[in-house]
Amino acid sequence: GVRVDSSVVSDKGLKLGAGTYVLQVGKRKFARVTLT
Question: What is the pLDDT of residues 1-36, one digit of tens each?
């Protein structure tokens, strides 16, 4: 599944505000994303 800051995302239309997030896809793929 997909996680944002270690919480599972079930909503495909999730809206994130500005900030820095850690996205995890599967067990090994991580990305740090900064939205402004």
Answer: 899 999 998 888 888 899 999 999 999 999 999 999
Q: Which of these, 27, 1, 28, 26, lies nearest to 14 by C-alpha position?
A: 1
Asked whether 3 and 11 are in contact (CB, 8 A), the reply is no
Whether the CB-CB separation of 19 and 7 falls below 8 Å is answered with no
Q: Give dist(CA 8, CA 35) in Å, integer.
A: 19
Kindly write down the DSSP assignment for every residue of 1-36, as one continuous string. -EEETTEE---TT----SEEEEEEETTTEEEEEEE-
